[in-house]
Amino acid sequence: MQTTRSSVSRQSWRARSKRPPPSAPKADRRCPSWLIGKSVQRRRWDDPEVEAFLQRREPVVLTGGCPLVQPLVGKWTFDYLANTFGECSSLNVHFAPIETTSFARMYGKGLGKGGCTPMSFAKFVELCKSDYLEPTASSEKVSPPLRYYLQAPMIWTDADRDGANPHGLAEDSAARPLRKAPYSSTIDEDMRRLGWDWLAYARSVAACDPFDTCQMWVGHGGGSTPLHFDSISNFLAQVSGRKQVLLFSPAQTWRVYPYPVGHPMDNFAMVNVEMPDLSRFPALRRARALEAILEPGDVLWLPRYWWHYVHQLDAPSENISLNFWCGRKGTDRFMQNLRTAPAPSAEEVAVASAEAAATAEAMGRHESERERVEAADDALLEADADLAFSCLHAGRIIESAAVRLLGDDKSKGYLFLSAIAAGADARWPPNATAAISNARRIRSELIGLLGSSVAANALLRMIARDGRLSPGLAPPIEGDVVNTEKGVMTPDEEVTRWFARRGARVP
C-alpha cells in the first residue's frame, strides 16, 4: 500500500513525541528528585492527539513551533523590548533578596520577602544588567543584591467570569471589548502576529471560552513562583530561556496543604517544594509532581485548578514567557449539585459521625493505622477526578461556613471544623444543641454533595490534617500586606529602604 505524505507526517509527529523529554541539570533544579513522578507528555502542536489532552483537561507540552507564540521566538530579547516597549513606566516589577528564591506576589511579615514597584521595561533591564548580567572587569559575574521579576498585562477583557455574557456582546462579535496596555505600536504589531486563530480553536476544543488575559513574565535571576492554582485555564508559552514547571493534580490538593480559605494566599500551598519540611507537612511524602521543561517555542496547556510551581532555569539568562488565561471557573455543575443534593437521613449522619470518631481513635492509637487511613483518603480522590474537583471546592466552602457559624472567628471556626473531622460531635453532650446541629448540617451537606459518608469523612480529615486549620500551620500575618494580585504596590519609602540596604540603585 502506498504511504501518503500525511501519514508519513503523522508518523513522524508521533515518533518525535516519544523522544525523551528535555531535562534540566540536577544543580539547576531546586526541588528534591523524589518529589517528581513522571514528565508531562509532549506532542507536536498539530498532532491530532492534542485535542484529546485538551478535552480531558490533562496537561501537555505543545512543541514544534506552536503558532501561538512562534512569531516572537528569537525576536523578543531584553534589548529589543527595552528599545520598543515605549515610555510606559507602570510595569509591575517584583523584587526579592537574593537568598529568597521565590516571588510570592504577596509581601509582608508572614508572607513573602520583598515587594513590588512600578517601573519601565528599560529600567528593569538596566537593573538586571547592572546587577547580574554584565561581567565585571575581572570577568566574574556580580552576585545581585536583589532578584527581579517583571509582570506586565498585554491584552485582556472586562469579562465577568461567572456571568452569562461576560463581554456584553455575542462571543463571535468583532466588537467585543478587548483592552490592551498602552505600549508602543511595535509591540502592538508583534502581539497581532501571534496565533490568535489557533488559540480560538484550542479554546473551543478545551471548552474554555472566553479569552480572559494575556500576561508577560520576564526574569533573569533564577527566581520561582511558589506552588499555587489558578481558577481558570492557561496556555503558558515560553518565548526565551527555559522554565521548569511542576504540576500536581487537584486530587493532590490536601497533600500540599493549601492556606486556609480567607488567607491572602488561599490559592497557594503552604509547602515549599524547593525545601520540603516533612516533619511539618508529612502528607507531602505521598505527593508526586508531573514535570515539564519548557524550551523556547513550547506551550504548556495548564488546566484550571492544577497546582503548579514555576522555576526559571539557566540563571543568569534572559527568560520571557506569555500566559493566556481562558475560560471560567467551571463550578456551575458543582454549585447546582450543592443546591440539589439529596439530604441523607439523620440516622446516616449519626452513623457517619460515629465512624469518624472510631477512625480518629484508631489513628491516635497506632501510627500504622494513621498512615493507612490517610493513604486511603488520598487514593479515593486519585481514583475519581470528578470527586477530587468536588472536594477541592467543598473543602473551601465548609472552611468559610465554619468560620461564619462561629461569629466570623477564624480560630473558633477552624477548631470547630477540626473537631467535626475527628468525630467529636458523636460524643458531645445532648445540651450542646447548637454545636451538634451545626456539625450535623455540615456533615449532612457533604454526604449529599459527595455521594457517600466515606467521601465526606475523608474530606473532613484531609482539610484538618496535621493541624492545618487548628492550631494552624500558616505563619501569622503582621502589619501591612502588599497584595499585587489586587494592584497594591510596596510604598515608595519601603522600596527605597530595600534598594538602599542592598546596595542597588533605587528605581
DSSP helical segment count: 15
CATH class of the largest domain: Mainly Beta
Number of domains in the coordinates? 2
Report the portion of residues in β strands: 15-25%
What structural class do helix, strand and pairing data support?
Answer: alpha+beta
Could you tell me how far the N terminus lies from the C terminus, measured between alpha carbons in angstroms?
A: 68 Å
Roughly what percent helix? 25-40%
Structural shape: globular
User: What name does CATH use for the topology of the largest domain?
Assistant: Jelly Rolls
Mean pLDDT: 88
Relevant CATH superfamily of the largest domain: Jelly Rolls
How many DSSP E strands? 17
Largest pleated sheet: 10 strands, mixed
What is the CA-atom radius of gyration, in angstroms? 25 Å
Oligomer classification: single chain
Please name the CATH architecture of the largest domain: Sandwich
What are the low-pLDDT stretches, counting only 5+ consecutive residues below 50?
A: 1-17, 160-176
